[in-house]
Amino acid sequence: MNLNDRTKPRKPRVLLPSSSSSETLTPVPKMARKSILKSTVATVLCVFGLYGLSTTFFNPINPYHSRLDLSLPLDSSSKSLSLLSTDSGENLSKFSRNFGPVKVYMYDLPRKFTYGVIESYAVARGGLEKVPVDDVSSLKYPGHQHSGEWYLFSDLIREDRDGRYVVRVSDPEEADLFYVSFFSSLSLVVNPIRPANGEGAGTGYSDEEMQESLMEWLEQQEYWKRNNGRDHVFICQDPNALHLIVDRVKNGVLLVSDFGRLRSDTASLVKDVILPYAHRIKSYSGKIGVENRKSLLFFMGNRYRKEGGKIRDLLFQILEQEEDVIIKHGAQSRESRRMASQGMHSSKFCLHPAGDTPSACRLFDAIVSLCVPVIVSDQIELPFEDVIDYRKIAIFVDSASAVKPGFLVKNLRKITRERILEYQREMQEVTRYFEFEDTNGTVSEIWRQVSMKLPLIKLMINRDKRLVKREMTEPDCSCLCSNQSEIRTFL
Amino acid sequence: MNLNDRTKPRKPRVLLPSSSSSETLTPVPKMARKSILKSTVATVLCVFGLYGLSTTFFNPINPYHSRLDLSLPLDSSSKSLSLLSTDSGENLSKFSRNFGPVKVYMYDLPRKFTYGVIESYAVARGGLEKVPVDDVSSLKYPGHQHSGEWYLFSDLIREDRDGRYVVRVSDPEEADLFYVSFFSSLSLVVNPIRPANGEGAGTGYSDEEMQESLMEWLEQQEYWKRNNGRDHVFICQDPNALHLIVDRVKNGVLLVSDFGRLRSDTASLVKDVILPYAHRIKSYSGKIGVENRKSLLFFMGNRYRKEGGKIRDLLFQILEQEEDVIIKHGAQSRESRRMASQGMHSSKFCLHPAGDTPSACRLFDAIVSLCVPVIVSDQIELPFEDVIDYRKIAIFVDSASAVKPGFLVKNLRKITRERILEYQREMQEVTRYFEFEDTNGTVSEIWRQVSMKLPLIKLMINRDKRLVKREMTEPDCSCLCSNQSEIRTFL
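Predict the joint structure of the above. Result:
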């Protein structure tokens, strides 16, 4: 039996040549979309903007490789420290605190896969004339929802990282896991426009060539070949990141936003880690309460999405006439982000419908706004679900119920002030998980999640190598299945 | 979609009404077998014998419940301690040593599910007249290959247990996991003969009634219902143990010997833990070397087995004429166990063919004998495979190659003295994992393995409860698949 037979998908989820699920406040014209590259560039382009003034700078380094020592001004506020020391209930379990450090080797990737991507992105927007820059500290990673790749890279090269869950080792022989730090989500959107030939707008940059080049580079690495990549970690937060090679790196741990475009034999809850998006609006700094939250329900975003996101138009139709509901087809801009912040900070509930894929950054915007998320996305997967019980901070409504006229608002209005405060209190307990710059925040938790994959990775590495040739009619898979009778709604 | 739709097996493994896979040196007559109970009793009966003189005694306790404080004279020899402190290479990884304790609550089961099983077993053999005994210290758990259930129970009730990987808690509210200590493997063989009506030979004991009774008891427990059993741990080492109710407790962590008779939606490497059998022959205490190992290959056991075990007869045919091979159709007795010890201690290689199920105690007998196992069992799963690389201590041969005339002996003879010493050295490093009485041995490792299931258990508990009703055509499963091109043989 050959490789392909044994890994045939049981529950196919097709990698669709469709637009990115990247959440955007921009109207995207409905039109035929010819390729993943084209459409992704078109859509994600709208999402991006450089952060106003970033405090994140780099130190000079070997211009051809991305390894360097760097101190990031990460937030080490007393808030995060106190959360660490007081153990916020079940959210920071004894299990995770006792979890020992796993040794990670970060590949010294050719520069083009890290800083080079940032440079190409800047060049394509006229922000840089000469590349490579002599001083990488002049480069800024553009702020956007898929910036996890930047935070993990930055974390591993920090000199003062504490390494609670993973320690970085410089000798690959010592490593338990290998981190491949290619900025795959940024690479996808380097080219700002949709050119006719599918290549960069005169920039000469091609994400697909980058992916192929990464693959070629990896295949020359001794440690890649050693365990067929099972002990390698890749980040591909944009649903189309690494799309060309994901089937060739699927043995590894994939850090993803959801499984919307990944087949079940490519990615799974057992093997991979669900990452939150970086929130795009300001965290709410006020106290819990409903007095300043006059709106019942808030949503701002693109009305027209594909796949599961088709529900958005239906939700608009039934919600836009409701008096205390704000539902807007928004466009991305500094102004609209300000409006979204204001809306989320002054509403009791924030709608989170599926986009082109089940997840979106809006959920995390809502959580840091203490605006109770109302999730209408039947296939959604949620980050860090072993330590976060999302029923405590969000309301789940199945799509079929949500689109019944009157259903949503009628039921949301029934929810008492006390119950809302309870949701808000619970949200406060977990906001740190969604703050990438918190010392005890997202990055730390991602490494903990990655660490916990190690026993099964080691088991599978050992087992793969001693398996003998067998006659099998099905793939040899170990599974964990959901077998609850599901709820239809939150009531 | 109902429960049954969503959990339909992808790779059916049928729970066959066949004989137990329990390894035995007894000739079992080939005959029609009518029920799991009958055949299991018949086969496993032959395996059992009381240990000569056991040092394992109990203290008096509430006669109706099995909770008690007890000190077991477990082996805390310098050998095991030195292995702990020196960290035997990758076999005791940094990961596992740093793994924090998980809180386990052991149910205070009605006495009949623990000491009561031992009593019934003794009564059925004329060893006890009055039950329940006043003093449980007069009871002895009969020694046999499935005694893991006894060791785990004994470990949790020890006063001086160190709790490196799990700590026992007395308040279920604090617990991460719930241990159900029913002696399911012993229960299966309480009745020593095969009666006509499928029930006990006048003992009134029925394993199936016990299983149903356990289920009834569990279903009244608040913590069983709370998470639908996902955080419950069951031991069912005999392939037929819990056969009647295993589909009702499959959400939990199952401690099993292999997956031979469990469907892939009931048990998996991801959810469950593979346990070693307790070895039945004496550990080899000598040094490594081949000088005193004149035989090339040794096997003693039942020639006729079902399923994958059919290969045994073929192996007998091609091996019994070889001069330096000892292959015997043995009968269980004190004498034959002595002969098996002698044979394994004086052979270079020990054959481990599949039995009725893929695993058997013979593998662990071979390891503690420093006799290099030659595994001919294509579907075998191996205990603790994240920390033990079995290629270093055993030779794997696919069934198709193994039965080619001349193949096995020709290739085994080619293996150099140096290579055999290497195998033996590696075996020495891992024997502690197969010593149930070693403080740092099997029991400790089982708890470590159980601990590592916790993050996925917690994730699935949280996720199950927030899932909304979805239209699905396939079960909602997360899988880890093998996708190596397999080896055909060891050469």
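Chain B touches chain A through 75 residues (CB under 8 Å).
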